[in-house]
Amino acid sequence: MWSSELPPATRRALLFGACLTLGACSFRPLLQAKNDRGVRGELEAISIAGLDDRLGQLVHNALLDELNPAGAEVPSRYILDVDLDRSAQALGIQLDDVITRFNLTLTARFQLQDSRSGAVL
After folding, report:
1. In terms of Cα–Cα distance, which of 41, 112, 109 is closest to 78?
2. Residue 110: pLDDT above 50?
């Protein structure tokens, strides 16, 4: 039976049950587990590669702020290889052909690799 065929009360009960189940199994998102020393150590051991231009530098710094906010010096166990593609589409063009607005789309493809074996994780 599809969820759209279920009565609203049943759908709410299922959603509530799913929330209780996730809460009971101590599920937590990885980035919210930063206070756990084991998780923090794994995140700090990620080095970032493949971001060379100015936009890449901004993304690199934002990733470092999330993965290693304290700037701890740890040996690199993982390599996060990131490839960015940017496309811009002109939206607002004035009568004198000056573009005043863009739709900017940023696409990131990434791979996490073991730095010793080179295996994709």
Report:
1. 112
2. yes
